[in-house]
Amino acid sequence: MSDAGIVRLLLFRVGGLTWAAEATMVREILPRLEPTRIPGAPRAVAGLINVRGTLVTVVEGWRALRQPEPPAGTQSGSTVLLQVSRGRKVVGFTVDEVTDLVSVDGAALDRRQALPGVDPSLVQAVGRRAGQLFVVLNTDALLTPILAS
Amino acid sequence: MDLSQYAELFLAEAREHLSACNQLLLEWERNPTNPGPVGGLFRAVHTVKGMAATMGYAGVTDVAHRIESLLDLFRRNAHPASEEVIQLLFRARDALHQAVELSVEGRERELALAEIIAELDDAAGRVASAAPGGRVSSLPTPTPPTPPTPQAPGGPAAAPAQGRLVRVVLRPEAPLKGGRALLVLRKAQSLGAVYGVTPSPPELEADDFDGSLAFRLESSAPAEQVEATLRAAGDVEQVTVGGAEVPGPPREAASGAVEAGEVVRSRHTRVDRRRLDALMDLIGELVTARGRLSELAAERRDPAVDDVAIQISRLSSDLQTEIIQARMTPVWQLFDRFPRLIRDLARELGKQVAFRVEGKEIELDRAILDELGDPLLHLLRNAVDHGIETAAERRRQGKGPEGEVVLAAVREHSSVAISVADDGRGIDRTRILERARRDGVVEARAEALSDDQLLRVLARPGFSTAERVTSVSGRGVGVDVALTRMRALGGSIELHSELGKGSTFVLRLPVTLAIVRALIAGVGRERYALPLTYVSETVELGTAATTTVEGREAIVLRDRVVPLVHLRELLGVAGEIPPARRPIIVVEMGGRRAGVVVDGMLGQQEIVVKSFDAPQGTLPVFSGATIMGDGIPALILDAGGLL
Lengths: 149, 643
What we know:
The complex is a heterodimer.
Chain A: E1 6-14, E2 17-22, E3 26-31, E4 45-51, E5 54-59, H1 61-64, E6 78-84, E7 89-95, E8 97-105, E9 123-129, E10 132-137, H2 139-147
Parallel strand pairs in A: 2-10, 5-7
Antiparallel strand pairs in A: 1-2, 1-8, 3-6, 4-5, 6-7, 9-10
Chain B: H1 7-30, H2 36-55, H3 58-77, H4 83-104, H5 114-130, E1 163-170, H6 177-189, E2 193-198, H7 201-204, E3 212-218, H8 223-231, E4 236-241, H9 251-259, H10 273-300, H11 303-327, E5 328-330, H12 332-335, H13 338-349, E6 353-358, E7 363-365, H14 366-387, H15 391-396, E8 403-411, E9 415-422, H16 429-439, H17 451-458, H18 475-488, E10 492-498, E11 502-510, E12 515-523, E13 526-531, E14 535-540, E15 546-549, E16 552-557, E17 560-566, H19 567-570, E18 583-589, E19 592-597, E20 600-608, E21 622-627, E22 633-637, H20 639-642
Parallel strand pairs in B: 6-8, 13-22, 17-19
Antiparallel strand pairs in B: 1-3, 1-4, 2-3, 5-7, 8-9, 9-11, 10-11, 12-13, 12-20, 14-18, 15-16, 16-17, 18-19, 21-22
Helix pairs in contact in B: 1-2, 1-4, 2-3, 2-6, 3-4, 3-5, 4-5, 6-8, 10-11, 13-14, 14-18
């Protein structure tokens, strides 16, 4: 992400925070699907889902971002399909709610990475929208270690 | 003319001819006094030369021409070939092969052919002077002068070599008719001189070329042979080999012949493998959707919907069968490369080895065949290197001086068994046993190694490298590779070895990877698929007596102890307490068995095998995943991983 120019971001909510991913990394947004568990996989991996005949591994958003577990019975939310490893793989990422798709000036984003309760290596920048803070995620840094095979 | 679009076609055909050259050279080498293979060699090299000339590959054309000139001397004089000449021809064939590959990649500049060309010219000079006048008195009939006129054995030898009119009609739907027509002409040139081509070659390349051409062929080959040779160009609908002015039948008659099914042989066409893979993926999705449709139809209880569901189900089954069939490839496409390899290896090691191939026509899914090259190579190399003894040692053992290695393919019901057998020294178990005890593969007090245990010891990564001096040095490396690859393909390996008599490795493989019949088992709320190939039977827990063997729970089934694997515990399945009466699925692979305890059986169905990215830590007991009729994925259990 360059400092200058317009950046398109997908905003979503996981736990108590609003997060953002670069729209160029987002392949598709699906409703939440019940995944098939993969025995032995890390806890953050929810399992496999079927996306029109292709098997996609899904990462549980709240676990990966160390957010509190959503109350039992709330099965709403979305699965965002993200490209990782320079577009070579597609991974599902569960979020509580997709809130917006915004275009922001890259220069207006704060390069700050230290945030309470958030692993700094996952934070690309911090932005603000309507007085609300959002964390722009480094999705590769977040997902690649979880999925390493 | 721009022929780059034909490069792939050229490569595929040239490879076939060069592979045939290897077989023919091996045949000639075994029996240098028999000139039988020479005609075939000449034709193969001549065809490559013709095609290469069309493509503008000067290096290939040049080498092929020199090989052809040398072969021509033998073809006319039928004198025995010296060892030296045959070795040279092997090298020349390899150089030609390399020239073909590099030329197609546009790397002609890297070719270094001067040396082999000089050697070929040299040899030709020597052979020609050794047979002055180019005649050998023992030859029953004087050989006709150029142009060469190959004769089919038993063909009408009396046919004078005069130009016959040949008409060829390409299939109307054939793509790139111009290129096809050129290939037809190349094929014709492999039989004799070709002239009077109408329409003229530049016209053949025009967009409006309708696919029918005529030319004169100067060859004494019988009409059937001419027809078969031309049809081998592919996409040929009709061939008429006439006398002087016999007009070809009108087009209506030609299409009549199609309906009569006479052109079945020409229906072979090359299809890009990626296209076959794409078709397989699509049919996979269709099978999944079909399952979903059937379920929906069953819920609706609407006879009209039911009818359509049944019809679609039948159609997609047929389509699936056809596509799987289209992917089937005869094993000779892989096996044909081995005779040459065995020969080279035997020469290098100074051993005498007869190599036999059986079951060449057995077919396997292309994707499986592609993966088999490496494992077979390792096993064959081991057989020659470590299995077969030197001639002197064999004599001492009371065996013939020549060892035998047999590569055989056999179709079993739902799988194919490929065996690599040698009649060499066998594996020395006492030596291996010592090693196995030390490594803890068997108990310290174990007295003997079963074939199965022996295989496991040999397959330990790096097993042999530490003991280079033993009689099985290197063996482990190959077995390790082979076993890993077989597992990945859902197959197995068996070993039978007898000291002094030889060893046999049997590779058992599914016929196709893509779609398998599987048992669907339920554990808690989860479902798992288990390919039926490895299921030997199912019994019920509680009815069979359980016992404990070596600290593991087991059942005794017809006097055999079968250790149990509780899937619920192995996979960490959460949920309610399992039912008291539970099925045990007995899986068997390579002589080993295990009883897989599940909660319930959910039926049998065809599943489409898909791979998935297994995250770190995933239990190594899955060979892939599939999508069930309801659209939800289920993991496929790997029998090898459970044992």
